[in-house]
Write the structure tokens for this entry.
Amino acid sequence: MYIIDQNSKIPLHIQLYNELKSDIISNLKIGDKINSIRKTSTLYNVSKNTVETAYSQLVAEGFIDSYPKSGYVVTDTNYNNFNTTNIETTTTIEKQKKYLYDFHPARLEKSSFPLKLWKRIFTKVIDDSLDFGAYSNSQGEYGLREEISKYLISSRRVRCNPEQIIVSNGFLDSMQLLANMLQQTYKSFAIEEPGYHVAYKAFDGYGYKINKIPLDAHGIKIEDLKESNSKLVYITPSHQYPTGVSMPVSKRLELLNWAKEKDAFIIEDDYDSELTYENRPIPSLQGLDKFDRVIYIGTFSKSLSPAIRVNYMVLPAILMELYKKSFHFQDSSVSLMTQKTLQIFMQDGYWDKHLRKIRTLNKKKHNLMRDLLIQNLGDSLKIETQGGGLAILINPNIAFDFEKLKLLAESTQIKIYFAKDNSGGNWDAIRMGFGGLKLEEIPIAIDMFSDIWHKCIIKY
């Protein structure tokens, strides 16, 4: 039995995560099953969302995987095989060590969340019109899907309606649903290399053959994709993860033609499309699709909050038919109150106002960090990507001791992150996140970082 303290200040999902991880490392072996979400929820008197969040983190870190008809199974019991210090999905579950400055590449500043407004809307939507005695819509509440549809049509030029949208509990939830839905037709899965490790994990866990496709200066190499014979590909065309490359229109059209000819599907992850600081956001690939071959994935994590765990996807008509026929029985994994609050937040115009505010704030942070890095590091600095998202990716332009940098950063209580930890392949860069820092903290944080950077330059 695990120890879950309902009165502790530590969130329940973190307590459960820590207990499960400790049990896996110390007692379990590869192939051992762990309890279902429903059973764990009942056993420890916690919500299904609490259990799902803990399990999702363990899946993301590679401790367990979800297999059809088998449930959750331990995939490794050797702690040394895990690198859990630099995993982007540890936004809400992390080591308790305190850092003076944390350059997390996917975090938002705590005060940027409109908490007072959210609480006011939350209070407003709790009334007797809500039926707490019934299960919520498995696709997500229609009103929320309607607002998401309006937003995507106007801001991302996505071709969609509310009936095509499925609301999920984070990115992994969406990807596992897709992997489950498509496994009878598709046996291989192509992904960019470097690319997002969570997408890899989701499809690998369902037994797909994974084909890693290299990049060129404009995104995924389509010739290599063709040679792989995969008919299912995951890409991040507007802001490639992690290199920041944007796919031009000509290549997008070539990719869409490939999908049409091969009867293939493209999974477009538009994860941080709202956060561009130098140019207008690039319209979605899905908006160019005349053949209904693109599955569009979006999130509220990068602009509103990763903690509310709201992700969504837009399915092509043929896949929507498959979902309604065989997968509609799955309960919605986002709480009713979160969905209704977010619906009103969007419906009453607060989402648009929030986006303008968050873009302005993060543009200031981005520009300040970029200018200070250039000023302090000079010719020793190479900026790999900037101009969007929540991080600037950098590398040294000279001989450099990376291991020394990691040691000095830890000893100075500075938390830094590397692209390779989340994306595989040979390409790497230091991910200098600015979203979680206050504007006034950035000069001091960069001064401290610059001091240890100069100590790591190798002089001959």
Q: What stands out?
A: Residues 121 and 344 are 7 Å apart (CA to CA).
